[in-house]
Amino acid sequence: MSGTSAGLALPGPPGPPGVPGGPGVRVARATAVTTSSGQAVVAWEPPFEAAPVVSVAVQGDGGGFRSVRVTANSASSTTVQAEGAAVVELLGISLLAAALPAAGVTVHLIAVEPQEGES
User: Rounded to two decimals, what is the model's pTM?
Assistant: First the structure.
């Protein structure tokens, strides 16, 4: 039954079934802490079929500037490098010191299986 009753919309008849979906896209997430060299390596178990598309985020503020980037990425593992610098104030102007490897930084990674046509 469809239509309205006392101003309330009533549901219409059910539609035809949709197209069945295929297997979903694999998504994996991991958390790691950088070593004294500022690197963290995450192993993907089981490995992806191809190198995944990876997003990286840094946890917390760490008391200064933090930068993180993917330095190596394969179907079985991803390596990230974290660098940091203290903020120095000189005559009321905030300056960044030289970036150095940042040890003990917690990084979060999200890896997604690449889709057809992506590289």
Answer: 0.72
